[in-house]
Records
---
Amino acid sequence: MVAGILDEVYAACRDDTSGAPADYIPELAAVAPDSFGLCLATADGLVYRVGDTDVGFTIQSISKPFTYALALADRGLDEVARHIDVEPSGEPFNEIALEPDTQRPSNPMINSGAITAASLIEGPDEFERVRDCYSRFAGRELRVNDAVYQSESRTGYRNRAIGYMLRSVGIIDVDPDAVVDRYFRQCSIEVTCADLAVMAATLADNGVNPATHERALSTALTERVLSVMTTCGMYNAAGDWVTTVGLPAKSGVGGGIIAVLPGQLGISVYSPRLDGQGNSVRGVAACRELSRRLELHFC
Ligand code: DON
């Protein structure tokens, strides 16, 4: 039944070629724009897939919940909360603003909060620990796409501005260039739609990877990550997403989206044509349709 519905949703969304791949990072525009993959992985280890589920693309902002997870594991809830709030901002992902009273980023899903989370990863070799963490969620060793990393690093002035702003108010207390470089690398980690489904299913399975049975995150911290994905994962489209899909989720400008039904399953979509808010057009449509057809609406 699930496989049949997945096929039908895929067919229903396939012909929509509206939107365009992100091009503010030049290398992101080099993808095949009409790739389309859809996966559903259950918390007990089944994976259903249709379309381009083995095509590599960069994780981009879908990295944010996973780096936040590692920061929480390294520093604990209270210490992380002193640096990053958990309030939706209602603003685009790259807003340059901090909370007026505390100077914290509003949440870890916008760039300022994600860069702060990256600053809280413990060393030595902080980026390797980030890569290891994502690999545990995916159940295989993930690597950086060097061309995308170089392209983002060459053009990432706005994120550098955010890093310097955070350093100037003391929210990060280490070299902002090193932290922003870590953030560029994490965004450039290459995944497939199938990887993202397993990563989402690991969140659904209380932090245990259903394929490898390895624990990637504690149950309590998984709950925190899913809560923040619910309120902040889709940025200024979060309200629309929660009302029409009803699942914790995260999107990335590489064209990926993950959505999680806690205790049950993870969904991933890859389709690089984006809407005006930076979310995959077919990704949003497929998640809406899957949620409706499988009655997944949860929050
Ligand atoms: O900060 C950036 O520009 C990117 N590397 C990540 C942005 C992103 O994926 C926003 N999400 N929808």
Note: Strands lie at 37-42, 47-51, 57-58, 143-144, 189-191, 249-251, 256-261, 265-270.
---
Amino acid sequence: VKPESVSLGPLGPAGAPGPEPLCVLGTGDLGRSLGQRLLRAGYRVVYGSRRPGSCGPLPEGAQVMSHAAAAQAARLVFVCIHRENYAFLEALAPELKGKVLVDVSNNLKKNLHPEANAEYLQRLVPGAHVVKAFNTLSAWTLQTGPSDANRQVHLCGDSAEAKDAVADVAAKLGFGAVDRGAVSAARELEDVPLQLFPQWRLPLRLAAGLTAFFFLYLLLRDVVSKYTSEGKDVSFRIMVSLANKVFPIVSLIMLSLCYLPGVMAAFLQLHRGTKYKRFPEWLDRWMLCRKQLGLLALGFASLHVLYTLIIPIRYYVRFRLSAITVSEIRENRTAAFDTTMAWRTDSYYAVGILGFGLYLLLGITSLPSVSNALSWREFSFIQSKLGFLTLLLCTFHTYLYGWDKFLRASSYRWYTPPGYMLCLLPPSAVLALKLLLLLPCVDRSLARIRQGRERARPR
Ligand code: HEM
């Protein structure tokens, strides 16, 4: 049964003048926090309770009544009770007829019930206009007000008028409302608080997999091989040397994986000759987690920088330096200054520093509070153009670090290439593909496709 229009008629007991009364059914944590904010925003709050005489401390200025009396007193009723206790609302159907019922509930698990809480509520009270809202905010956010990261109230419901009424209240509390559609979208909204970093899952797994792989690879290559072939125990290298290889290697691979899906999507559009065909599901999912991939990659690069900073104070490094000096004194020889080495090391440090600076800029601009302050053009300039420049600089840093080592047979211990050579493959491939896309003829075709033009298909 579709309820008819929202009753805007007599507000409060006997239409008393003064601020608009809003009803909160339920006096738990969420009900109390919500009531407190509503009172501060200038509303009159009427609580509906099973035992109005003994329902514990409520915000100052709020009234408490029986469920039926409270429901009758307002046109907007917040249902702040657990779904398991909804059944009694069926008996309140006459008082709730035509009212806006705001369902703020959540579940402890996904798919616990056959239908969403809001749909169940609508079934129990068909004469009311159910709007699902506020469930993605914690009691704490409700009490303290919106913060930069948590400014939005997502809502859904079948009546546009009812949703407007709830959006008005949200606006008075300082939140923006995001309309998520009909009440059938309620399950999606109810699942939001149950998700644990959904967009981080894939990047975190990838980072853990790459870290484990390169750690084992380098452990075998750099530590175990030294022990088996030369009998030397260099296991202390695990703590700093190995970590300072694994972190930048993983960072560079993950940074290139941020830019690979965009390049692949461009080639796919070129191949299809249109932008109006959906990308495959896996490519969509990959593109959606680019921000998280990039932020994790930045975390790994920051670890590399921190590890690099402590190189001069390491016991092993200081010992080696003094041993070299002592042997030079003993043998009465002075090492000649190697200008090429000076150029090479200074260059890779400098390029690394520039790359890291841009990396930081990319990370900062991907934060919502910063990206919201940028226009789309500014955002895409930083994330795309400067992003590729960052990838180029970091890749160049690693090439410069490797220099001519790839020519030396000693670099291929146990016939395996060093880690940095392996990690150069993905960024080099991404940069080469990007270069292809920048060729004027390819760039022109892609621009035409992205402007919405379709390439004529041969018959
Ligand atoms: C290697 C410095 C930023 C990727 C190195 C090494 C140093 C260094 C000293 C040699 C480490 C060793 O001998 O074990 C710096 C400085 C940076 C910086 C000072 C900026 C402040 C970056 C960034 C990336 C990166 C942003 C990109 C992810 C690499 C890679 C290696 C490397 C892949 C080779 C690791 C290996 O030995 O296998 N860097 N770096 N670096 N760096 Fe950086």
Note: The pocket of protoporphyrin IX containing FE is lined by residues 241, 244-245, 248-249, 251-252, 301, 304-305, 308, 349, 352-353, 355-356, 359, 394, 397-398, 401, 419-420, 423 (CB under 6 Å).
